[in-house]
Amino acid sequence: MKRSPRVVIVGSGMSGLCMTWYLKNAGVEDITVLEKAADVGGTWRDNSYPGLACDVPSRFYQFRFAPNPDWSHLFSPGPEILDYFRKVADDHDLRRHIVFGVEATDLTWDTGVWRVATNDGNVREADFVVTATGILHHPNIPDLPGMSDFQGPIFHSARWDHSVPIEGARIGVVGSGSTGVQIVSALGGNADQVVLFQRSPHWVVPVPNPGYPSLTRAAHRLLPVLDQLAYLGYRTAFERVSVALVQPGVRRTVVTRATKAGLRAVKDRKLRAAITPDFEPMCRRLIFSPDFYRAVQRADVRVVTTPIDRFVADGIATDGEQVKLDAVVLATGFDSHAFMRPTQVSGRDGLTIDQAWSDGPFAYHGVALPGFPNLFMAMGPHSPVGNYSLTAIAEAQAQHITAWISRWADDEFDTIEPRYEATRAHNAEMKAALPGTVWSTGCTSWYLGKDGTPELWPWSPEKYRHVLARPRREDWETHKLLTATTTRARVKSTPTPKMMEK
Ligand code: NAP
């Protein structure tokens, strides 16, 4: 390494930690991770609701550089996953790089250097910025009539109020996505009454969640190769099944039939009809739950499908009834299109991210975009985030980004960004492939962008890994900055994309 890059990473969630590890592993030491909260863990720190778990097997939802032989379950609970990420930060000395309680407010490219302003009044300089701000981070708080009239506590699922008693309470849950399903499953039998307000149903697959016996864990501790084999086994299985998501055919038919058959676990025909979606399985993210169908059949759990009319002092009124409640949880999802915003990002020639994304977020291979040199994104637009392990995606992206930064360190170039034409062609290819995906078969979901098309990678995650592992050099524009004057002249010679055809 001929020179040492200064890298600022925004966010110390799963992908921020991953990025930090890969950079350190490549010998980069000048890394500053800006974390607005007081701890690492991102979504696993913010979400602490009862029943929180990952729907990807734990042996596949972990970093390959930090295998954990001690997972308790096939799908381990949220607190255990948070502990895992905390341990990764500790074991690999990542915390040393993290500045907690500091939020990046402005990222400004100043011909050759990023100026990173934070809410404590500081401005740091960086050769590279990597945004690792997560996708499901900003809670979607609906503006339902009369919400302020309700006398009990109301909170979003990602801001769980642990001071609210559950036992003996009547809890309303608004939203029937992955989060609502997990909460209802966990509260059934613990609260006095659980009422799920379902605007529209989601497909749920009743997958069991067995615990790992201590013998299995001991074997994984003794023979780390078992962990690697398990990881590769799950990866292969997920990649095979993922084909069902991106192209019609036998696999899609098999998953569709199996998902629909799962609903037979609900014996009451009326209830079954009420929770049967009118769109294809997998169009929205498929939900895996060992006990949702059991929970909704409990006497203390109700599914209300009549639309919410308004909140009243002691509950929620629908067309026809008033449901009395002590507390309401808004499991109403997130703004999945914000990416690094509200941080203000200003690239080459003062182009802002809001201008560049005025027609919706776009990127080149989910990691970078033209007009923003030396800026990389973890989990940027069109990353393969549908029903797959995001740790695997984060590792592929971190390796890719690290490879570019290492080339900068070897003095190959000073600035790098994807070419406008290459990005446009890539987005056009994705647009052409999207109609074949299951996400385009007619449903609403957080996958869809402003124009109604899915903001996902329309091919297999395997292809994504391969594409990132073998970057097309010709799709990337690099410059060597000789002096400050030539720098300006040269960098300005490239047209700035004011608008991007998606
Ligand atoms: P979501 O899938 O977006 O679901 C939000 C729910 O809130 C939907 O049922 C939606 O109704 C409802 N809703 C939104 N606004 C509403 C309103 N104004 N009135 C009534 N209902 C309203 O959000 P999520 O459940 O938090 O899950 C988001 C994603 O997080 C998942 O898809 C998954 O990727 C991730 N997640 C993963 C896990 C895991 O196990 N790994 C667990 C939790 C979450 P409609 O369906 O009618 O729009």
Query: Unreliable runs, pLDDT <50, ≥5 residues?
Result: 484-502
**Derived structural class:** alpha/beta
Largest sheet: 5 strands, parallel
Task: Please list the strands of the largest sheet in the order they lie side by side.
Answer: 3-2-1-7-21
Bound molecules: NADP nicotinamide-adenine-dinucleotide phosphate
Count up the helices: 14
Shape: globular
Q: What do the pLDDT scores average to?
A: 95
Give the N-to-C terminal Cα separation: 37 Å
Secondary structure tally: strands: 23
Helix percentage range: 25-40%
Radius of gyration: 24 Å
Strand content: 15-25%
Summarize the structure.
The protein has helices spanning 14-25, 43-46, 78-91, 178-187, 214-222, 224-246, 250-262, 269-274, 292-296, 353-356, 390-409, 420-433, 461-469, 484-492; strands spanning 7-10, 31-35, 98-100, 104-109, 114-118, 123-126, 128-131, 138-139, 154-156, 170-174, 193-197, 204-205, 287-288, 301-304, 308-312, 315-318, 321-324, 327-330, 334-335, 344-346, 375-377, 415-418, 476-479. The chain is α/β, with parallel strands linked by helices and 502 residues long. NADP nicotinamide-adenine-dinucleotide phosphate binds at residues 53-55, 136, 142, 144, 174-180, 182, 199-200, 285, 331-333, 444, 446.
Characteristics:
disordered C terminus, binds NADP nicotinamide-adenine-dinucleotide phosphate, 502 residues, alpha/beta, 23 strands
